[in-house]
């Protein structure tokens, strides 16, 4: 990713790079169930309920961060109230989308940790599926197409 003299990025290049990052991170999320079935240790004792609820709460908080970023911050970038040039818009969108991907992955990762520790499936399955759904909600679009 190259910056111009003002620190802004080229919009088409930003979208292409974000789509590549999106695909790689979505692929890693798809590998979580495969990894869990290979390394699952049935001799481990499940963690206590308080620990499980703590991890679930952290997963919910990270999921809410993604929803905030996607539906408030990213949607606000394309607001007609504050017009902005394309390169600055692309730079800010880059930052917000990457944060969305990181927090979506973290939400699923909390589910992965609970599954690895033999936690309650009622807690780790929604975290994992929620992380996948959040990742899909954050598919990068070209800034010009967002407002349409």
Fraction of residues in H or I helices: over 70%
Portion of residues in beta strands equals: under 5%
Total count of strands: 0
- What coarse outline follows from CA principal-axis ratios? elongated
What's the order of the H and E elements? HHHHH
Structural class: mainly alpha
- Low-pLDDT stretches are none
- How far apart the termini lie comes to 27 Å
How many domains?
A: 1
What is the overall number of helices? 5
Radius of gyration: 18 Å
Biggest beta sheet summary? none
Mean pLDDT across every amino acid position: 87
3D structure, described in words:
By secondary structure, the chain is mainly α. The chain has one domain. Helices cover 74% and strands 0% of the residues. α1 packs parallel to α3, α2 packs antiparallel against α3 and α3 packs antiparallel against α4. The radius of gyration is 18 Å and the shape is elongated. The model has no long low-confidence stretch (mean pLDDT 87).
List the helices and strands and how they pair.
Elements: H1 11-39, H2 49-77, H3 86-116, H4 121-137, H5 143-146
């Amino acid at each position: 990713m190259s910056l111009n003299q003002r620190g802004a990025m080229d919009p088409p290049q930003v979208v292409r790079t974000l789509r590549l990052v999106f695909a790689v991170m979505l692929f890693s999320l798809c590998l979580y169930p495969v990894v869990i079935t290979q390394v699952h240790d049935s001799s481990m004792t499940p963690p206590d309920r308080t620990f499980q609820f703590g991890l679930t709460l952290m997963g919910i908080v990270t999921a809410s961060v993604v929803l905030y970023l996607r539906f408030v911050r990213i949607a606000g970038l394309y607001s007609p109230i504050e017009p902005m040039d394309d390169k600055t818009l692309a730079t800010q969108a880059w930052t917000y989308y990457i944060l969305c991907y990181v927090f979506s992955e973290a939400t699923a990762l909390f589910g992965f940790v609970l599954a690895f520790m033999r936690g309650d499936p009622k807690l780790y399955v929604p975290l994992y599926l929620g992380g996948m759904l959040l990742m899909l909600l954050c598919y990068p679009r070209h800034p010009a197409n967002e407002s349409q």
